[in-house]
Amino acid sequence: MTSYRLQTGGLIDRQTPVSFTFDGKRMLGFEGDSLASALLANGRQLIGRSFKYHRPRGILTAGSAEPNALMTIGRGGRTEANTRATMQELYQGLEAKSQSRWPSLEFDIGALNTLLSPFLGAGFYYKTFMWPAPLWEKLYEPFIRKAAGLGKATYEADPDTYEKCWAHCDLLIIGSGPTGIAAALTSGRSGARVILVDEHSASGGSLLSETASIGDVSASVFVQQAMDELHSLSNVQILTRTTAFGWYDGNVFGAVERVQKQVALPNVALPVERLWRIVAKKALLASGAEERPLVFGGNDIPGVMMATAMRTYLNRYGVAPGKDVAIFTTNNSGYALANDLEARGIVPVAIIDSRPDGNSAYAGKARVINGAFVSDAHGGKALSSVSIFKSGIAETIKVDALAMSGGFSPVIHLACHRGGKPIWSDEQSAFLAPNGLKGMELAGAVATTVGIAACLEDGANRAAALIEGLGFKTSPASFGTVERDIVSPAAKPVWNIPGIKGKAFVDYQNDVHREDLGIAVQEGYGHVELAKRYTTNGMATDQGKLSNVNAIGLLAQARGVSPAEVGTTTFRPFYTPVSFGALTGAYHGEHFQPVRKSPLHGWAKKNGAIFVETGLWYRSSWFTRDGETTWRESVDREVRNVRVNAGLCDVSMLGKIEICGKDAAEFLNRVYSNAFLKLPVGKARYGLMLREDGMIYDDGTTSRLSEQRFFMTTTTAYAAGVMNHLEFCAQALWPDLDVHIASSTDQWAQMAVAGPKARLILQTVVDEDISNEAFPFLGAKEVSLFGGQLHGRLLRISFSGELAFELAVPASYGESVADALMEAGRNHGIQPYGVEALSVLRIEKGHVTHNEINGTVVPADLGFGKMVSSTKGDFIGKAMVAREGLTSSERPQLVGVIPLDPNTSFRSGSHILEKNAAARLENDQGYVTSSAFSPHLRSTIGLALVKRGSERHDEEVMIWNGIRNEFTPGRLCNPVFVDPENEKLHV
Amino acid sequence: MASLVPCPHCGARPKEEFTIKGAALARPTPDAGTEAWMDYVYLRDNPRGLYEEYWHHTSGCRRWLVVTRDTATHDIEHSRDVALSQLTDIRP
Amino acid sequence: MRYSALSLLLNGLRGNKTWLPAWRQPEPKPHYDVIIVGGGGHGLATAYYLAKEFGVTNVAVLEKGYIGSGNVGRNTTIIRSNYLLEGNNPFYELSMKLWEGLEQDFNFNAMVSQRGVLNLFHSDAQRDAYTRRGNAMRLHGVDADLLDRAAVRQMLPFLDYDNARFPIQGGLLQKRGGTVRHDAVAWGYARGADMRGVDIIQNCEVTCIRHQNGVVTGVETTKGFIGCGKLGLAAAGNSSRVAEMAGLKLPIESHVLQAFVSEGLKPFINGVVTFGAGHFYVSQSDKGGLVFGGDIDGYNSYAQRGNLATVEHVAEAGKAMIPSLSRVRVLRSWGGIMDMSMDGSPIIDRTHLDNLYLNAGWCYGGFKATPASGFCFAHLLARGTPQETATAFRLDRFTRGLMLDEKGQGAQPNLH
């Protein structure tokens, strides 16, 4: 006989049948079923196979600790492997598939592993598969990997959405069983902000499986009434289907809400899961206790189930586990089940109680065998009988279901997430939460309170105390009398059951059985952490919720010490596994990172820009024209046009910082390595910013707009970093300086107008005289535009080496000004140019960027030795820049590099070798930092950092790009390829 | 680590809003000598316990703070605005 | 006892009752020629090579907890030798070569699996940086291949090529990179060292380093005073604390790095893949779990636990790289304490005290370095001179301005 649905009872809606499939077979359940209860109701007990031995497995629990009933549900991008059938609510059309079996669940080839099990004990793989060595990767490992894993992940993207949010509360209550409900009522009535979370689909916890009554009503009606009241309180937020998975510092809890995991087709307006970060002034952990399995032979055969789980299926789902049910218990939990079974007409065939005195209060009809053990369960894909061991006498009883209860472990996981170690209690036969938790208290079964009445009281009292501590006035909620309360005090644990013949499993999913733990101890892996790592006990998807305490008990006995001495492994997040989707929220795909667009983005776009991701920015890379088929054609044209006519380039992404105050000049003098104190008003200066270790941090120009006002530009990549750095200098290092700093990157649209005709074009929009005499190279001033309609800043600086200006205008005017300049320049041949052309132009001119400023160069390496002031008293980097390693003549220095044959080419990242040197690392001379095709020289050119480079101009070298098999004879040269005398800058 | 960091200006704010620089050490004078500068730039007490660090409230008030934090428990004892506290020292 | 298929068979037939302990549980002797502080991967490897390669067998490894309880027991198991700088690259390649023969050498299957390490790049600048790195590797005879987008796509069809914020352009592949079963490395070295006479003493915390006239003489421990000829510190994560006992202040900060494992899945990711547009790297274990991680949390810490914000960042980057991870569930997160050095590179050197030697500062790269670190530290301890691939890992390199900064981030550990 198998499990079946009873005619009546349960909190299911028998008017609403729900159709679903399991391994392709259509089945019916009811609204309110879990996938597990529906399978049981359909008589389905074999639901999966184990990982190593492929043993037939059944449903063991009714909750999140389930190690066996893992299934793949959904299809396409919604495919979800390893879903716990016990936690998955049934929905119309749900498709579930079993895992870890081939070719089918009923007939699984992998089950042959059982025959080899004597040779597959703990850690067997560490002792073999070593010869011959190449076979590990060619044969053994592929074979192991083929067998590895549980469910199969999809390759398809998830079509659904996720979100994240913060919540703040006075009291977070975790768990909505009797303790949590009493706490919520108590605190909710006080007006405090309360959040009540529960991992299950409905509030009520164990009360939903209870046959007790509270006051005059059944437990489930009590829950309904309490929840109605809580829902009516606007200060109480109730989150069901929400698992608090981690307790983090600052009393922040991570929780995940399964918003739409119980529906076939999610509403697109809602996420399927929501990540909560809950900031709680206080938290009350009311997570209850987890029943422990017993370790006897065949304790994994389908039909063996936890006693409380069997009770839940019976009472909440109206599902009977079988006709001939036996109960193996070490405590009174088994008797609660016996009473409930009897009430539903199923008198247990036997109650096997490990205690010599059993439970004298039991008045039911079942045969009770005290002082006895189930040594073995028998059966293959279904349970057929159990062997009972009592004082050396064995008896076998035919059964089709067996419930077991080895006592209870408080669910203390969250309480241990912040470093506290659990404490073993002999009295409770359990590990209890660490002492002295900050911000968290425990109540109810997790604090070893037993019985509904006691939990209600404990929850109410503890919540009242916590809330009063926060300044709220309240009194503990009180409740009516509890009838048929089950008070199951802790009983002596039974680790080693006598008379076992079969395999007795400790960790079901990982197939760790008790002999494995014995081997671990024997071989020196007896420390609980080593035993875990050696046997894999506790490393399955349930993270040892059912197995760890039994393993500790067995280790303790094998080592001859107490469980306290063995101790636990570390409880770490996540309490139950959390999806990438939930942790990610909306930040994936194109929304992985925010997008920054220049105020000139629209201008660039309408001019045909091809954009490229640069940090968060989209920058215009080049501007395609009709007839151009390759990017190089466009870039070459843009470069030539700048050198011949004029070009307009969007440089708005440069960091822009306003620096004002009486001491602004002194401040700049300290943050730059070169002098800034005497920079005249109306002038710009190139500046080098070092780190304290003497390396160059960033470069840029800073202009003095008035005596106490400066305008700094930084590189795009380091804009944010430089801003933070300047604030650090101003606030932490020199708070006595009168200086004020503000980022204005987003406030200005900035465009470079470069080329021989730049002045002609600019003069049409700039009101002031910008002739060479009136506004010479490195001039910087605020200008009036369009006859005074607009004001901007004009800098006469050049990255290209041509006559060039940078014009900054308020961001919102950027596009119109760029349009006007394009219009004004039309007859002068102006063209937009992008960062690719900008890069070619600067390489031609030998200007450096962060390709060269790579974090390991000092100013002298780049030929900026003179920019390290020897006269200034102090500046960032001064103290460290003179160390021997940073002044060595062997250091890499900036050089130019060209191919000997202009028809050949090379790439950035190539290394430089001496002409005839062997390609060995010790012969490495440096590398190409930047390279481009120069239309000006009609050759590829590059910049390189080469040992003693400045002395080696004209040396022939090998430009070595072994990774692409490109070897280009080249020559080192002056890094300035265009206008080395800087004549063009001053026209 | 503290998921929330107390900012003297903004109150408790998520850690993600901050940038951490590291040990809150006093910058030596320019002529303090090699040893003092080595100590400042490279050597760290790295204590297990209370530690003073520079944190920048980057996505908030943009002030640099000295955060006193326990490296073993992650508890934050205190935070102060570095400039304001120094100025107070200078001009009580 | 030698491990082999035959030993499995014979012991299996005897009901697995005849396995011998993998290592002894000795009480400390009063004096050793060499004491290693720290029974992690590096400390055990040092002891192993001291005994096996340098003939120094009167050695004790002192471990305050259980062996392998530090970072060798909580890392993401990656091995690679894709280093850039001349001071680093040959050392890590030595390590790779040692990995390649390790299991036969110490008779323990640590599942050294060279399934490849692929670093994705998403921009021209990253491509150029990887070209430079790949060439540096090639120059030292290390395997390196530059893959274009199509080749990456063929290898890993499930990455996001079409909707990505930072489209994948290609990747730098080291085929000989891969993963190793991390705990087994500690166990293999421990067993190999023990077999050769090394005493591995667990639950023995060093509380004081004794020295006289500038010469180290021994250590006070929770099991009493133990004298030594030479003392080697290999206590990553706690290096500053241990060094402080000898009055030594290090260029090191302790930081927490988190790592993660997902529920078991049928293997679909063969090697190691690192994302270039965010902090995320992943491999899949022989058990089926995705093993992954990201950046350090960013603050000094001795608590082996991390921050939720970092967890989220890692997951975001993961799903950005592999959209179909969305419904994969993360099983467990953990945190390890890293010795983050001031230039991102390690230290293997003598110290200001005679007979005191330091092995520290491995940042998050310590696991892959285990064999070479042990070998080179053993070399230094036994011969007094640095092994030829480890000459740059000097303690005075900061004073002298000879930093080994692969990332160019300078003296700020949380940026390395």
UniProtKB/TrEMBL annotation, chain A:
It holds the Pfam family FAD_oxidored. InterPro entries: 2Fe-2S-bd_N, FAD/NAD-bd_sf, GcvT/YgfZ/DmdA, GcvT/YgfZ_C, GcvT_C, GCVT_N, Sarcosine_oxidase_asu, SoxA_A3. Residues 501-583 form the SoxA A3 domain. One of its GO terms (molecular function) is sarcosine oxidase activity. One of its GO terms (biological process) is tetrahydrofolate metabolic process. Keywords: Oxidoreductase. Residues 893-979 form the Aminomethyltransferase C-terminal domain. Residues 600-872 form the GCVT N-terminal domain. This is Sarcosine oxidase subunit alpha.
UniProtKB/TrEMBL annotation, chain B:
Gene3D superfamilies: Folate-binding superfamily. Pfam families: SoxD. GO terms for biological process: tetrahydrofolate metabolic process. InterPro entries: SoxD, SoxD_sf. GO terms for molecular function: sarcosine oxidase activity. This is Sarcosine oxidase subunit delta. It comes from Neorhizobium lilium. The lineage of its organism: Bacteria, Pseudomonadati, Pseudomonadota, Alphaproteobacteria, Hyphomicrobiales.
From TrEMBL, chain C:
The keyword Acyltransferase does not apply. One of its GO terms (molecular function) is nucleotide binding. It is found in: Cytoplasm. Its cofactor is FMN; FAD. Belongs to the SoxB family. NCBIfam families: soxB. InterPro entries: FAD-dep_OxRdtase, FAD/NAD-bd_sf, Rhodanese-like_dom, SoxB. The keyword Acetylation does not apply. It catalyses: sarcosine + (6S)-5,6,7,8-tetrahydrofolate + O2 = (6R)-5,10-methylene-5,6,7,8-tetrahydrofolate + glycine + H2O2; sarcosine + O2 + H2O = formaldehyde + glycine + H2O2. Its EC number is 1.5.3.24. One of its GO terms (cellular component) is cytoplasm. GO terms for biological process: tetrahydrofolate metabolic process. It comes from the Bacteria. Keywords: Cytoplasm, FAD, Flavoprotein, FMN, Nucleotide-binding, Oxidoreductase. Residues 34-78 form the Rhodanese domain. It is an enzyme of class 1 (oxidoreductase). Pfam families: DAO. This is Sarcosine oxidase subunit beta. Its main location: cytoplasm. Gene3D superfamilies: D-Amino Acid Oxidase, subunit A, domain 2, FAD/NAD(P)-binding domain.
